[in-house]
């Protein structure tokens, strides 16, 4: 009998055993009654596949282009915080795992390694995207620049390829299980270098650290003025917001419900994807998806419904807990192998062959 993880879910136990209960709940849980968290994964099962045969699938090319960068597979890693709680090499190990398979990574603002060190480890070959939340310090700051401005400049200097603005977090979601088990307290030696500013740390001041709930579409102009990097909006779930995003000139829309951690009752991302794809049709805005992607067929379904790429959140943390860089690589390799097999079984030799007619939509 084979020992060790075979499918992506097999990796989850390693994060569970390694974490204290509050940290385990921090990584695992969703908001409120966790409907959306559960539905993200379940919803993929409602879409069935319509395989096509006799199409010569002996060679399969999984590569794609994402914002002009070539990736060897259409599966990247999401921004998620506190990789230092999972592995001592934290986001550097994650990024190296991503680099080893030729993919891309979003870096959380709440990472435990400086963005410059991550870029030094894997850029420029590996496209890195800096995730951004905006705080209430844009007008009432006591420094020359806001945190966002300062971070965006650092990101540009380090050679990142884009800014991922998280829009689904005007306030923090209600993590009930997280609250029940008490706060996940970081050890003192775990730092958040993206908040270390000249002369101190943003983390010292709670009012500065409040997420800015007044953010609007007009603020995209403000962000646009700060940077020439492509702007990706993460957390869009409706055609209305997708159309507005196209009008506002963003480069990509990342369909996400924050892994079920923000609004419980929001749709599963695979269910929200078609209306977003429809709304951007005719523009050159790219669409990505995350949330509940655990199998090669999940990736195939998302691509068939119009996503250019998918991203994994928790599975990357599970792989990191399993074996650092090698563990992240192993998770991505399993998904790559499963996607390649699913492509063969549905008659696809390239990503362009993965079209909507492969999908049997769920009955309404
Ligand atoms: C522990 C954890 C921390 C996260 N931190 C962030 C974050 O700092 N910024 C962000 O935009 N999304 C964050 N996310 C959401 C992920 O980017 C992503 O949307 C989600 O994990 C995808 O769902 P999945 O975990 O089912 O793959 C976090 C998710 C988890 C599980």
What's the story with the biggest beta sheet? 8 strands, parallel
Q: Between the first and last Cα atoms, what is the distance in angstroms?
A: 42 Å
**Could you tell me the mean pLDDT?**
95
Q: Give a list of the ligands.
A: flavin mononucleotide
- Give the class-level CATH name: Alpha Beta
Report the strand count: 14
Q: Which secondary-structure class do the elements indicate?
A: alpha/beta
CATH architecture: Alpha-Beta Barrel
Shape: globular
Lateral strand order in the biggest sheet: 4-13-12-11-10-7-6-5
Helix-strand sequence: HHHEEEEHEHEHEHEEHEHEHEHEHE
In CATH, the homologous superfamily goes by the name Aldolase class I
CATH topology: TIM Barrel
What percent of residues are in strands? Answer: 5-15%
Poorly predicted regions: 140-144
How many structural domains?
Answer: 1
Radius of gyration: 20 Å
Number of helical regions: 12
Instruction: Give the fraction of residues assigned to helices.
Output: 25-40%
Descriptive overview:
With 364 residues, the chain is α/β, with parallel strands linked by helices. The protein has a single domain, classed as Alpha-Beta Barrel (TIM Barrel), CATH 3.20.20. It is 37% helix and 13% strand. The strands form 4 sheets. It has an 8-stranded parallel beta sheet with strand order 4-13-12-11-10-7-6-5. A two-stranded antiparallel ribbon has the order 1-14. Helix 1 (12-18) packs antiparallel against helix 12 (314-346) and helix 11 packs across helix 12. Residues 140-144 have low confidence and may be disordered. The site of flavin mononucleotide (FMN) has 22 residues, from loops. Its cofactor is FMN.
């Amino acid at each position: 009998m084979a020992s060790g993880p075979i499918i992506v879910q097999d990796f989850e136990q390693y994060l569970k055993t390694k974490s204290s209960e509050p940290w385990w709940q921090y990584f695992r849980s969703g908001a409120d009654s966790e409907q959306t968290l559960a539905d993200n994964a379940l919803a993929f099962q409602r879409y069935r596949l319509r395989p096509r045969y006799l199409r010569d699938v002996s060679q399969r090319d999984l590569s794609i282009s994402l914002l002009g960068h070539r990736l060897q597979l259409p599966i990247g890693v999401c921004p998620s915080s506190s990789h230092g709680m999972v592995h001592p090499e934290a986001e550097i190990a994650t990024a190296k795992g991503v680099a080893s398979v030729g993919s891309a990574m979003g870096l959380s603002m709440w990472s435990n390694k400086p963005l410059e060190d991550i870029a030094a480890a894997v850029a420029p070959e590996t496209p890195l995207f800096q995730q951004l939340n905006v705080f209430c310090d844009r007008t009432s700051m006591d420094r020359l620049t806001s945190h966002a401005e300062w971070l965006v400049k650092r990101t540009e200097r380090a050679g990142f390829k884009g800014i991922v603005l998280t829009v689904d977090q005007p306030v923090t979601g209600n993590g009930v299980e997280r609250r029940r088990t008490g706060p996940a307290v970081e050890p003192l030696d775990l730092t958040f270098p993206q908040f270390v500013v000249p002369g101190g740390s943003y983390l010292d001041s709670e009012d500065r650290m409040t997420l800015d709930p007044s953010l609007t579409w007009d603020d995209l102009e403000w962000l646009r003025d700060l940077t020439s990097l492509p702007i990706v909006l993460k957390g869009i779930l409706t055609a209305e917001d997708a159309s507005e995003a196209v009008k506002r000139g963003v480069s990509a829309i990342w369909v996400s419900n924050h892994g079920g951690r923000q609004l419980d009752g929001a749709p599963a991302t695979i269910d929200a994807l078609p209306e977003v794809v429809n709304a951007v049709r005719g523009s050159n805005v790219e669409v990505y998806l995350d949330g509940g992607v655990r199998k090669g067929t999940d990736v195939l379904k998302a691509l068939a419904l119009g996503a250019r790429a998918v991203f994994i959140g928790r599975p990357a943390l599970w792989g990191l807990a399993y074996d650092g860089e090698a563990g992240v690589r192993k998770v991505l390799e399993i998904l790559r192998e499963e996607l390649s097999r699913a492509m063969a079984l549905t008659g696809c030799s390239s990503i362009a062959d993965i079209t909507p007619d492969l999908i049997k939509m769920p009955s309404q």
